[in-house]
Design goal:
Largest sheet: 10 strands, mixed
Helix content: 25-40%
Oligomer: single chain
CATH topology: Rossmann fold
Structural class: alpha/beta
Shape: globular
Strand content: 15-25%
CATH superfamily: Glycogen Phosphorylase B
CATH class: Alpha Beta
Order of helices and strands: EHEEEEEHEEHEHEHHEHEH
Distance between the termini: 15 Å
Radius of gyration: 17 Å
Length: 270
Protein backbone atom coordinates (compact mmCIF):
# COMPACT_ATOMS: atom_id res chain seq x y z
CA UNK A 1 0.00 0.00 0.00
CA UNK A 2 1.42 3.37 -1.01
CA UNK A 3 2.17 5.98 1.59
CA UNK A 4 -0.58 8.51 2.05
CA UNK A 5 0.32 12.02 1.01
CA UNK A 6 -0.68 14.93 3.23
CA UNK A 7 -0.33 18.53 2.02
CA UNK A 8 -0.16 21.21 4.72
CA UNK A 9 -1.16 24.76 3.79
CA UNK A 10 -0.17 26.89 6.76
CA UNK A 11 -0.54 30.46 7.91
CA UNK A 12 2.24 30.30 10.49
CA UNK A 13 5.17 27.97 11.19
CA UNK A 14 7.85 28.36 13.84
CA UNK A 15 10.88 28.93 13.71
CA UNK A 16 10.17 31.18 10.72
CA UNK A 17 7.59 33.10 12.78
CA UNK A 18 7.16 33.60 16.54
CA UNK A 19 5.61 30.80 18.57
CA UNK A 20 1.80 30.91 18.62
CA UNK A 21 -0.87 28.24 18.92
CA UNK A 22 -0.97 28.01 15.13
CA UNK A 23 2.77 28.22 14.40
CA UNK A 24 3.60 25.45 16.87
CA UNK A 25 1.07 23.11 15.24
CA UNK A 26 2.37 24.20 11.83
CA UNK A 27 5.86 23.11 12.89
CA UNK A 28 5.25 19.88 14.81
CA UNK A 29 2.13 18.35 13.24
CA UNK A 30 3.72 17.67 9.82
CA UNK A 31 6.77 16.18 11.52
CA UNK A 32 4.60 13.92 13.68
CA UNK A 33 2.54 12.77 10.69
CA UNK A 34 5.71 12.11 8.69
CA UNK A 35 7.11 10.05 11.55
CA UNK A 36 3.91 7.97 11.41
CA UNK A 37 4.74 6.87 7.89
CA UNK A 38 3.05 9.40 5.60
CA UNK A 39 4.58 11.65 2.97
CA UNK A 40 4.15 15.37 3.56
CA UNK A 41 4.59 18.70 1.79
CA UNK A 42 4.26 22.00 3.63
CA UNK A 43 3.57 25.53 2.35
CA UNK A 44 3.82 28.96 3.98
CA UNK A 45 3.63 32.55 2.66
CA UNK A 46 7.05 34.23 2.54
CA UNK A 47 6.12 37.18 4.75
CA UNK A 48 8.52 40.12 4.82
CA UNK A 49 9.65 39.46 8.39
CA UNK A 50 10.92 35.96 7.57
CA UNK A 51 14.72 36.28 7.44
CA UNK A 52 15.81 34.57 4.22
CA UNK A 53 19.52 34.48 5.01
CA UNK A 54 19.20 33.18 8.56
CA UNK A 55 16.68 30.53 7.52
CA UNK A 56 18.59 29.67 4.31
CA UNK A 57 15.73 30.15 1.87
CA UNK A 58 16.52 29.80 -1.81
CA UNK A 59 14.43 30.15 -4.93
CA UNK A 60 13.31 27.06 -6.84
CA UNK A 61 13.70 28.29 -10.40
CA UNK A 62 11.87 25.38 -12.02
CA UNK A 63 8.76 26.13 -9.94
CA UNK A 64 8.86 29.92 -10.21
CA UNK A 65 7.99 32.19 -13.12
CA UNK A 66 4.24 31.77 -13.47
CA UNK A 67 2.02 34.85 -13.41
CA UNK A 68 -1.33 34.68 -11.60
CA UNK A 69 -4.01 37.13 -12.72
CA UNK A 70 -6.04 38.57 -9.86
CA UNK A 71 -8.46 41.43 -10.41
CA UNK A 72 -7.13 41.85 -13.97
CA UNK A 73 -3.54 42.33 -12.79
CA UNK A 74 -0.58 39.97 -13.33
CA UNK A 75 1.31 38.94 -10.19
CA UNK A 76 4.53 36.88 -10.50
CA UNK A 77 4.62 33.67 -8.45
CA UNK A 78 8.01 33.02 -6.82
CA UNK A 79 8.67 29.72 -5.00
CA UNK A 80 11.36 29.40 -2.35
CA UNK A 81 12.28 26.49 -0.14
CA UNK A 82 14.05 25.88 3.16
CA UNK A 83 14.59 22.92 5.46
CA UNK A 84 13.94 22.34 9.14
CA UNK A 85 16.84 19.96 9.65
CA UNK A 86 15.73 18.58 13.02
CA UNK A 87 12.43 17.50 11.47
CA UNK A 88 13.86 16.38 8.10
CA UNK A 89 11.14 18.58 6.63
CA UNK A 90 11.13 20.98 3.69
CA UNK A 91 8.94 24.06 3.65
CA UNK A 92 7.88 25.68 0.38
CA UNK A 93 7.31 29.44 0.48
CA UNK A 94 4.86 31.33 -1.72
CA UNK A 95 6.42 34.71 -2.49
CA UNK A 96 5.31 37.82 -4.32
CA UNK A 97 6.55 41.37 -3.88
CA UNK A 98 3.07 42.92 -4.08
CA UNK A 99 1.50 40.71 -1.40
CA UNK A 100 4.07 39.23 0.95
CA UNK A 101 6.99 41.60 1.42
CA UNK A 102 5.30 43.50 4.23
CA UNK A 103 6.31 42.60 7.77
CA UNK A 104 2.98 41.27 8.94
CA UNK A 105 0.67 38.29 8.49
CA UNK A 106 -2.75 39.94 8.09
CA UNK A 107 -1.74 43.44 9.19
CA UNK A 108 0.82 45.50 11.09
CA UNK A 109 0.89 48.19 13.74
CA UNK A 110 1.39 50.98 11.21
CA UNK A 111 -1.32 50.07 8.68
CA UNK A 112 -3.69 47.92 10.72
CA UNK A 113 -5.35 45.20 8.69
CA UNK A 114 -3.99 45.04 5.15
CA UNK A 115 -6.56 46.35 2.66
CA UNK A 116 -5.62 43.68 0.08
CA UNK A 117 -5.97 40.64 2.34
CA UNK A 118 -8.68 39.33 0.03
CA UNK A 119 -6.22 39.18 -2.86
CA UNK A 120 -3.49 37.77 -0.62
CA UNK A 121 -5.79 34.85 0.32
CA UNK A 122 -6.56 34.22 -3.34
CA UNK A 123 -2.93 34.46 -4.49
CA UNK A 124 -1.74 32.11 -1.76
CA UNK A 125 -4.39 29.48 -2.51
CA UNK A 126 -3.80 29.54 -6.25
CA UNK A 127 -0.03 29.68 -5.80
CA UNK A 128 -0.02 26.57 -3.62
CA UNK A 129 -2.24 24.55 -5.96
CA UNK A 130 -0.37 25.57 -9.11
CA UNK A 131 2.95 24.68 -7.46
CA UNK A 132 1.69 21.26 -6.34
CA UNK A 133 0.51 20.75 -9.89
CA UNK A 134 4.03 21.54 -11.16
CA UNK A 135 5.48 19.11 -8.61
CA UNK A 136 3.13 16.41 -9.97
CA UNK A 137 2.52 15.39 -6.36
CA UNK A 138 -1.06 14.15 -5.85
CA UNK A 139 -2.15 14.63 -2.21
CA UNK A 140 -4.61 12.25 -0.57
CA UNK A 141 -5.56 15.01 1.85
CA UNK A 142 -4.95 18.75 2.15
CA UNK A 143 -4.95 20.23 5.66
CA UNK A 144 -5.53 24.01 5.72
CA UNK A 145 -4.56 26.10 8.74
CA UNK A 146 -5.70 29.66 9.34
CA UNK A 147 -7.81 32.13 7.46
CA UNK A 148 -5.11 32.79 4.85
CA UNK A 149 -5.66 29.24 3.52
CA UNK A 150 -9.46 29.41 3.59
CA UNK A 151 -9.99 29.66 -0.19
CA UNK A 152 -8.20 26.35 -0.84
CA UNK A 153 -11.28 24.11 -0.24
CA UNK A 154 -13.40 26.09 -2.73
CA UNK A 155 -10.74 25.92 -5.43
CA UNK A 156 -10.05 22.23 -4.86
CA UNK A 157 -13.71 21.25 -5.05
CA UNK A 158 -14.59 23.50 -7.97
CA UNK A 159 -11.78 24.91 -10.13
CA UNK A 160 -9.34 21.99 -9.70
CA UNK A 161 -11.94 19.24 -9.26
CA UNK A 162 -11.38 17.71 -12.71
CA UNK A 163 -7.60 17.75 -12.48
CA UNK A 164 -6.47 14.09 -12.14
CA UNK A 165 -3.96 15.24 -9.54
CA UNK A 166 -6.71 16.49 -7.21
CA UNK A 167 -9.95 14.74 -8.19
CA UNK A 168 -9.80 12.33 -5.24
CA UNK A 169 -8.20 14.72 -2.75
CA UNK A 170 -9.96 15.29 0.58
CA UNK A 171 -9.76 18.60 2.45
CA UNK A 172 -9.55 19.20 6.20
CA UNK A 173 -9.61 22.71 7.69
CA UNK A 174 -8.44 23.78 11.12
CA UNK A 175 -10.36 26.74 12.52
CA UNK A 176 -8.69 29.02 15.05
CA UNK A 177 -9.60 31.90 17.32
CA UNK A 178 -8.77 34.62 14.78
CA UNK A 179 -10.10 38.11 14.25
CA UNK A 180 -10.42 40.54 11.36
CA UNK A 181 -10.68 44.14 12.48
CA UNK A 182 -12.89 44.74 9.48
CA UNK A 183 -14.34 42.75 6.60
CA UNK A 184 -12.34 42.03 3.46
CA UNK A 185 -12.77 44.07 0.30
CA UNK A 186 -16.47 44.02 -0.67
CA UNK A 187 -15.48 42.81 -4.16
CA UNK A 188 -13.93 39.62 -2.76
CA UNK A 189 -16.81 37.53 -4.12
CA UNK A 190 -16.05 38.67 -7.68
CA UNK A 191 -12.26 38.42 -7.31
CA UNK A 192 -12.34 34.84 -6.01
CA UNK A 193 -14.14 33.57 -9.12
CA UNK A 194 -12.31 31.13 -11.38
CA UNK A 195 -13.32 28.70 -14.08
CA UNK A 196 -15.58 26.08 -12.53
CA UNK A 197 -17.01 28.43 -9.88
CA UNK A 198 -20.53 29.86 -10.13
CA UNK A 199 -21.91 32.74 -8.10
CA UNK A 200 -24.15 30.25 -6.24
CA UNK A 201 -21.00 28.46 -5.04
CA UNK A 202 -20.08 31.48 -2.92
CA UNK A 203 -23.58 32.41 -1.75
CA UNK A 204 -22.42 32.36 1.86
CA UNK A 205 -20.41 35.52 1.14
CA UNK A 206 -22.38 38.75 1.39
CA UNK A 207 -20.11 40.72 3.72
CA UNK A 208 -16.72 38.94 3.71
CA UNK A 209 -15.91 39.11 7.40
CA UNK A 210 -14.06 36.46 9.41
CA UNK A 211 -17.26 34.47 10.04
CA UNK A 212 -18.23 34.27 6.38
CA UNK A 213 -14.70 33.42 5.24
CA UNK A 214 -14.63 30.55 7.74
CA UNK A 215 -18.08 29.43 6.60
CA UNK A 216 -16.89 29.36 2.99
CA UNK A 217 -14.08 27.02 4.04
CA UNK A 218 -16.54 24.82 5.96
CA UNK A 219 -18.82 24.58 2.91
CA UNK A 220 -16.12 22.85 0.83
CA UNK A 221 -14.21 20.95 3.51
CA UNK A 222 -14.59 17.20 3.99
CA UNK A 223 -13.62 17.45 7.65
CA UNK A 224 -13.22 20.21 10.24
CA UNK A 225 -10.86 20.48 13.21
CA UNK A 226 -11.44 23.01 15.99
CA UNK A 227 -7.86 24.17 16.46
CA UNK A 228 -8.53 26.55 19.36
CA UNK A 229 -10.30 25.99 22.66
CA UNK A 230 -12.57 28.96 21.93
CA UNK A 231 -13.91 29.86 18.48
CA UNK A 232 -16.69 32.28 17.54
CA UNK A 233 -20.06 30.74 18.39
CA UNK A 234 -21.53 31.64 15.01
CA UNK A 235 -18.81 29.61 13.28
CA UNK A 236 -19.07 26.65 15.68
CA UNK A 237 -22.85 26.56 15.17
CA UNK A 238 -22.30 26.55 11.40
CA UNK A 239 -19.84 23.66 11.70
CA UNK A 240 -22.33 21.67 13.79
CA UNK A 241 -25.16 22.32 11.34
CA UNK A 242 -23.00 21.13 8.42
CA UNK A 243 -23.09 17.56 9.71
CA UNK A 244 -19.52 17.01 8.50
CA UNK A 245 -16.92 14.97 10.42
CA UNK A 246 -15.53 17.23 13.12
CA UNK A 247 -12.68 16.84 15.59
CA UNK A 248 -13.01 18.93 18.73
CA UNK A 249 -10.12 20.83 20.29
CA UNK A 250 -7.35 18.48 21.38
CA UNK A 251 -4.79 18.64 24.16
CA UNK A 252 -1.65 20.24 22.65
CA UNK A 253 0.47 17.54 24.29
CA UNK A 254 -0.97 14.55 22.42
CA UNK A 255 -2.97 15.76 19.45
CA UNK A 256 -0.94 14.17 16.62
CA UNK A 257 -2.44 10.67 16.94
CA UNK A 258 -5.95 12.14 17.12
CA UNK A 259 -5.32 14.15 13.94
CA UNK A 260 -3.85 11.09 12.21
CA UNK A 261 -6.92 9.01 13.08
CA UNK A 262 -9.15 11.84 11.85
CA UNK A 263 -7.31 11.88 8.52
CA UNK A 264 -8.09 8.16 8.16
CA UNK A 265 -11.74 8.84 8.91
CA UNK A 266 -11.97 11.61 6.30
CA UNK A 267 -10.05 9.68 3.65
CA UNK A 268 -12.29 6.69 4.30
CA UNK A 269 -9.80 4.27 5.81
CA UNK A 270 -11.58 3.87 9.14
Amino acid sequence: MKKQRILYVSQEITPYLPETEMSIIGRYLPQGIQERGREIRTFLPKYGHINERRNQLHEVIRLSGMNLIINDTDHPLIIKVASIQAARMQVYFIDNEDYFHRKGILGDEKSGQFSDNDERLIFYARGVLETVRKLRWAPDLVHCHGVISSVIPLYLKRSFAQDPLFNETKVVISLYDQEFEQALDPNFKEKVMMEGINSEDVDVISKPDINQINKLAVDYADGIILGSATIRKEVVDYVESSGKPTLTFQDPENYVDKYSDFYDQVIGLS
